[in-house]
């Protein structure tokens, strides 16, 4: 009897929430409005966490969230890279709808000083919750743009998208911030600049030789200009690394740069201090706090007391440090008496990176039994992520849900909990998760989910509820390198188009219900309903595509190149250096 009583102790609170959410009692919804704390890891693999099957990585605090709450086992990101995934998360819409995709291979925003970003006409859940009286904060990574026309217009800034408070990186942590050998753009830029230097140096030498031997009738002016250009390119190749560190690796508080470039050993304590400060300031609520961890993206900045402590090298150390950060945040909630009134959500923006590898050392995550990883638009390893909700006394502890859900579902879920209305003037792809989380709905409202790579549709899944089957159809897949490998080794991420992808005719078909690892391709000979499945999925794709409207692509070349006049700088450009805040207490 004691066990039975404990198991059903959440029922009265759950019924109260259900009654408050009923249409006839919509005016009373404010009575149950929780505080909302959203925790998002960067590049974390679903297989990196204990509660998702890892028995060698220590993640006790994240595991505790799952034990005390609801765990989603088929939780899907809308993109396999951070910029489009985060845009979809905040807006509840596929990133192709907002233009937060590319068509030419620029998968994410490349520079802080670029003009692309989350369009001002997009509505985030933060904007709606702010209108409903919530204090709204974002601490950590943004990576959805900053400026449009000047270095201070901040048109894409978090404060222009519904957040009252921002502290963190407007861009993203990356290997180039620490001049790692695993480089996002520095090495490529150095190689291009060196090549151009060699070309111009050869031109200058040829002109000099021709001038001196009278074989080329030319004045000295072209010789001088080509030589000066060569010298400038050579100098640029030496300084481009420092430019990237100062241009992209800095911290802001609201509209003010506080640390440029970042002092990495201060960053984690500063983030935790900021989270604690926000929670204490707003403990009388309601509040929405989005903690967007810089962990576990390379260069895996880890404090000294966590180095060498895990069984998985520097990457494991970084994961375990992030879990410790989660624990510190949970402790703050307890101390401030906020635990029972706060809905907590934990996830990752996409799967772990398989290509983050040097020699035999892996610096990216593990995606468990799932094929592929970060950057792969269709394979499960790139898009299946952790999804954990905890709301003590409301959500049943220990519940596990295998229904298809999406990061986009957070938008309508938190909007409804806050007493807001989902926008009716645009397509919202997310679905309210609360009935599923509470157990009042048996199935997810997602019958189909589309899986994009840039603006190209690579795959789709169909939840055939009457059969209890989860079909997955791949139209395009990347060519793994070397042949037989499980990733695109030798490059940062797999491509979305071109010679290094395969267009399948007929498409590849998998039954994820029986084959979640996508290892057994179904054919008309092995699957009796093959053609019926293909026909139904293709019909759903056509119906989905008819809802798309043409929009400017924010990540294409014009919006995704560095523009010096858009570069944030805490001094006269290019003297971008400052340290405006004391060490954390």
UniProtKB/TrEMBL annotation:
Gene3D superfamilies: 3.30.1120.10, Alkaline Phosphatase, subunit A, Helix hairpin bin. InterPro entries: Alkaline_phosphatase_core_sf, Sulfatase, Sulfatase_CS, Sulfatase_N. Keywords: Calcium, Hydrolase, Membrane, Metal-binding, Signal, Transmembrane, Transmembrane helix. Residues 34-419 form the Sulfatase N-terminal domain. PROSITE patterns: SULFATASE_1, SULFATASE_2. Residues 1-27 form the signal peptide. One of its GO terms (cellular component) is endoplasmic reticulum lumen. It holds the Pfam family Sulfatase. It comes from the Eukaryota. Its cofactor is Ca(2+). One of its GO terms (molecular function) is hydrolase activity. The chain crosses the membrane at residues 195-216, 223-245. Belongs to the sulfatase family. This is Arylsulfatase L. It comes from Homo sapiens (Human). The gene is ARSL.
